[in-house]
Amino acid sequence: MPIRLLTTETIGKIAAGEVVERPASVVKELLENALDTGARRISVEIRNGGSDLIEVVDDGHGMGPEDLAAAIQRHATSKLTAFEDLDRLRTLGFRGEALPSIAAVASLTIASRTAEVPVGSAIRVEFGAIGPVEAVAAPAGTRVSVRDLFSNVPARRKFLRQASTETGYATRVVSSYAAAYADVAVTLSVDGRRVFGTDGAGDVVAAATGVYGPDVGQAALRLGPLDEAAAVPGVTVSGWVGAPAVTRSHRNGLVFFVNGRWIQSRALSFALEEAYHSLLMVGRHPVAVAHLALDPSAVDVNVHPTKAEVKFVDERAVCRAVQRAAHAALLGAPRDTLPRVHLAASSWQTEQRPMELPRPRWEADRNGGREPDKADERVPEEEKHASGLPILRVLGQVGGTYIIAEGPQGMYLIDQHAAHERVLYEKILAQISGRMADKQPLLDPLIVDLSPEELAIYERSAPELAQIGFEVEPFGEGAVAVRAVPALMRNVDIAERLRLILGELAEGGAGNSWLDSVAISTACHTSIRAGQTLSLPEMRELVAELERSSQPRACGHGRPTMLHMAQADLERQFSRR
Q1: pTM of the predicted model as reported, rounded to 2 decimal places
Q2: Which residues are bridge partners to 111 per DSSP?
Q3: What is the CATH number assigned to the segment(s) 213-331?
Q4: Would you give the DSSP letter of residue 408?
């Protein structure tokens, strides 16, 4: 077949396929253009998932007639003049492909005006056919309307998802930029309904509240500057991370911006999640919006057609900066941000005046578990342990699993297994860091038969088991002899617990290193079980040890150790409020 040059129309449609993947791609490009113009107010409207209409209005610098005509030409940009400018790039759009690519597969209308002139200009491009520039009445700024996306490319349009799904993709784009650019007021409307809006006041927590709701806003922990010893030279991290009480079942809540550019990075996501090690349940992920500022020459933004990915000169240093910033924010967070139990108001509540409940009196200290005396003064609400937990008074046990305790802010339900696991896990870590594990020698060696899989895991984990306090050696074929166990391993079936530890390790473990995985498994399978009845002194001692822990809110696997039921919730449930 003879070789022929493609037509301009075909070239435009093919090029558009690289930049405009779906309606969310259009939203992203137009948002970035608006931010590059210095806009302080941006409104986005989407109809039918973006297929019928995508409209972005901003109050930025605007364009004159000449710039407007040039903006829809391919590879026309104001962001750079030479290839070397890429090393100093601080803007978002720079290729000059967005508007021409969108115009090739949609009906595009742009109306814009600069603040210096009284009359605006508009241009319309119908699926690649460029119309004339006309004078129109327009406010300062730019309005870009995209209609009938992919109408001239049926093959692309039929592969779009349902309107609700495409709306979800577009909403994620807008919400990410709205949460990241706290100094820009961003609003989103979908099918005529306002979805969210931010105030543009510059407060990252207020922006998080406006986008994600009050639950996330209240749990947002600011990422502040690190001290000189922890800071990574050349990399600054700001923004916020969510407290461990707020999680998602996916990683879409992790948003990263590099020099103002929204990117996707598995390495950064992994680095940030490492800061939450042992604080989240397995399968749960944190929420965060992190800004990374570094020298433009240290990052290559020109490696992906949609600029969704970047390359770092030193990726390890950038990941280290993210992890350290998140870890510092979590360490400085209030420790009493526990999962809350919100009791629904009963449908039979009346409008009668609520009764006033007397403030509960409870002991200021355990002191051997003495009962509270009438002369005792109530402990102030702000008095807490070093761990951040309030002083608790143990009341009893439910189902042989949950310890009931009272505090100044209501009732606490403590999972005895998760709590004991956290206590043992921190004790093991302390022993490891001290290079001296407390052992309990056995009078006679205990012979434990292992399956081939368990034996293979034992051989891999023998050094780590020894660091924790196990003294185990091979004993014939398919068996091991246990001569000593960690001192914290008391009143348990040693053979059963050893098999459980090896079985969990065979599934991959839960730590960020193999030693950590062994420590977590050992703590889990040597701790108090659910359903085990405890005496009141035993419960008091367990709660006291949990209060002395550095991270009392979650066990080594990330399961919560306790739930908090506020006094106000109890009063509402009993129609007293």
Answers
A1: 0.70
A2: 122, 143
A3: 3.30.230.10
A4: T
